[in-house]
Amino acid sequence: MTDKPEVMSGESLDIAALRRDELKQLFPSVFTETKDVDGNVVSSIDFERLKAELGTFSDIYEGRRERYGMEWPGKRDCMKVIQEPSRATLKPCPDESVDWDTTKNLFIEGDNLEVLKLLQKSYYGKVKMIYIDPPYNTGNEFIYPDNYQETLDTYLTYAGLLDDEGKKFTTNTASEGRYHTKWLNMMYPRLFLAKNLLREDGVVFVSIDYRESSNLRNLLNEIFGEENLIFDVSVVNNLKGRNDREGIATCHENLLIYCKHEYNPVGLPLSDDKKSEYNQIDENTGAPFQWRDLRKRGGADTRKERPKMYYPLYVNSMSGEVSMDCTDEFDVAVYPVKSDGTDGRWRWGKEKTAENISKLLGKKVSNRDKWNISYKVFMSEEGTERRVTPKSIWLDPKYSTDSATKALASLFPKLDAKKFTPKPIGFLSDIIEQSTEQGDIVLDFFCGTGSTGIALMENNIQNGIDRQFILVQLPEPISESLPDEYKSILTIADLAKERLRRFAKEKNSSGLTERDLGFKVFRLDKSNFKEWEGKREFSVDTLQQQLTLNVESTQTGASHEGILYEILLKAGFEPTESVESINLNGKIVFSVAHDALLICLEDQLTEELIDDVIALEPMQFICLDQGFQGNDQLKANTAQAFKARSRDSEAEMVFKVV
């Protein structure tokens, strides 16, 4: 039994290792153990055995030299970017936040590629809906770097957190040979990582214009699978049209919708016009309803297509009541005959019709020897109001760009809102409404001025529920000269944060809501811990040696709060989890998620403290290696004590140092 603790990784989730583990679960027999040049035992994949496991499919795939797929220069480098873990961190900014101690919402300022990597451990498979409005590749300044080696440093330079070493963001004009490939290289890794965060029933909505619509669809087909395309919706957002194309006034943009595996939309609430159609009142329950034709109309509406749904119903000519059986009282036979005299079909089969026979009514067509059968559709079923399915074209004044700029201007009256191209709140609210429910998480990693956060909070207020948002925005400088009133707003991220703060203040001052209108602000930055020297890949023993050499593992000036949240994040806990400071034997220990994770940042650990920690039976206990002050015996005893307690309690308890 080893007497060494597990060394906590200072990196984000290793995507390549995760994929290998998934493959090993499916095909354990294809993994073999070999020795590398240094004599270390390593695991490798026997690809010949894997092809044998896959059978004829692998033969077909290997023999086909020309394959259907999407290729572009730099695609292989995209995968390298995806597989390269991040050593960055998210530094807490309580002073910029609202309701820091209680809110479940997140606003993260930073490059979304690094941020998505850092969110992998905490939010893997937890996000219900993603909405993004990525750069439309208009040929203007290309904010996101075409850089495969130093993404974090490039970002830090851009954000003014590092000295300028010549790194800069380039333009992406149509005259360049890599006009489309730069955009694809930017989008591919971000969408790939975003998919990992989605739940199995999760869904992604992406707004895009004509320039990259086809490329984006091909990209999403590759990442999500063409079979998971829900629809390519046309959203009319400017009825007047924009004269940005010769001979065409553009009045819409596309909304691509893809699910991860299974998507069960909840639909949209009834509009006032739709509610007015339920203009009948049930005499027994007093519930509003409307009559609808029982004969199927539209696709697959013939007897030939659904022969079992062609059968007679019998009507009482005096009362209009309907029966399945022909009697003296029910003597008028009615068949689902189409208007052209051909045989149609009912909407329901015999069994469902028999169960709902009391909801049917026969009506004679005026001046014709013909009867129709109608059925009751109630506005509410079992206490839940009926909802409607969105159509393939979205057309509503609340989807307009004018409504978007008015919403932004309402909180910033002296701002020229049009220059910031915000998204319409009504449009985003409908996306949130149809795809999420109580407790769901919504992610927008191109959040711009924060419209998604505003829409989510507004929708939560209207529906009396709580969903959570994660917003990510690059601190893109605002080039326009703003009025003195807004002089503290230097970047788009600043504008989004201030917009969220003003919205929360406005709603809270009304006293009409108890919803979560707060948000925690974090900023992407370098790790609070020292970089390891040499190669990134180490054995546990080698890594332990590195830790020993760096007695002080933390960076000079690193705050306890920053260290705490970096450990919390890289241990796989959400940054919004509850954190409580507790005193154990005179030492401060941070309890995360009600003792699920205990973190101690003290510089001198004691045996008594360790005993108190173990008694709380946390899932994980993480401390600074320097806290043992070179006392290897105490460290070894701690590791053994955690293993022994795990066996006794039949629940794994992990002890890590960092």
Automatic annotation (TrEMBL):
UniProt catalytic activity: a 2'-deoxyadenosine in DNA + S-adenosyl-L-methionine = an N(6)-methyl-2'-deoxyadenosine in DNA + S-adenosyl-L-homocysteine + H(+)
Domain of life (superkingdom): Bacteria
Annotated keywords: Methyltransferase, S-adenosyl-L-methionine, Transferase
Domain DNA methylase N-4/N-6: 127-461
Top EC class, one word: transferase
Enzyme Commission identifier(s): 2.1.1.72
InterPro entries: DNA_methylase_N4/N6 (IPR002941), DNA_methylase_N6_adenine_CS (IPR002052), N4/N6-MTase_EcoPI_Mod-like (IPR002295), SAM-dependent_MTases_sf (IPR029063)
Family: Belongs to the N(4)/N(6)-methyltransferase family.
Protein name as annotated: site-specific DNA-methyltransferase (adenine-specific)
